[in-house]
Write a structure and sequence with these properties.
The protein is an alpha/beta fold and 225 residues long. The chain has 7 helices and 5 strands. Helix 2 packs parallel to helix 7. The longest helix is centred in the first third of the chain and has 40 residues. The chain is globular, with a radius of gyration of 23 Å.
């Protein structure tokens, strides 16, 4: 993001009445404002970086997709976890290594995801985990993650249970603000503590499905259903 810093015009002084003291104060004030602006810019960059590291920690390594959101960003993980033994023997679009979902819930979500993929071509994949108990990097090859894939990691480790890694093609159709609003509505700690992790996961999947089925227009996915 580009920032435009507008500086005031230089103070004009009279040849006969110079104002060295006033000019000095102006420069000091200007320097202070510049410092404040720089600090603000640095803070704005730090916030998504922190969120990025949170999600990255959950997956224990980058899936090398375009974007990821904890409602947003993706940096490289500091601790790599690769546990293919936690993956099921056969393909599954929903993997619950944390025990948040019942067998019936997993089946319903898998059916919804299959129908979504058939109708839209987008691949939604759900991983429920409690870090560090996660398949980690092994999930990329298992799911054949690509630009049309949304990896939804449900993990309460960092408070908000909803984390998303979004492929580049998905990002072209879905506003980035949607993921933040979705995480804010169904992923906040008050919601899943009261209703359960399973309710957050199911609500998020249905909201994503509804969003991806909307026509791609200027205000698509403006509401989290």
């Amino acid at each position: 993001m580009a920032f435009l810093l507008q500086l005031p015009s230089p103070l004009s002084t009279s040849r006969h009445h110079p104002l060295p003291v006033f000019t000095s104060l102006t420069k000091a004030s200007l320097s202070h404002k510049i410092t404040q602006t720089q600090n603000s810019i640095q803070l704005s960059k730090w916030v998504p970086n922190f969120q990025s590291k949170s999600l990255n920690f959950l997956l224990s390594g980058s899936l090398a997709l375009a974007l990821s959101f904890t409602g947003v960003g993706f940096a490289e993980g500091k601790v790599g976890v690769n546990k293919p033994e936690l993956l099921p023997k056969e393909f599954a679009s929903v993997i619950d290594v944390a025990g948040f979902l019942s067998d019936g819930q997993e089946k319903r979500l898998a059916q919804e995801i299959a129908a979504l993929e058939k109708d839209t071509g987008f691949k939604l994949r759900v991983l429920a985990q409690n870090y560090p108990d996660t398949p980690g990097l092994a999930i990329k090859e298992f799911w054949k993650v690509d630009d049309r894939t949304i990896v939804f990691v449900a993990d309460p480790t960092f408070g908000n249970i909803l984390n998303f890694n979004v492929g580049a093609t998905v990002d072209l159709d879905i506003p980035r603000s949607f993921w933040s609003r979705l995480a804010g509505k169904y992923g906040n700690i008050f919601y899943w503590k009261e209703k359960g992790e399973d309710a957050s996961i199911e609500s998020a999947v249905m909201a994503i499905s509804a969003c991806l089925r909307e026509p791609v227009v200027a205000n698509n996915c403006s509401e989290v259903k």
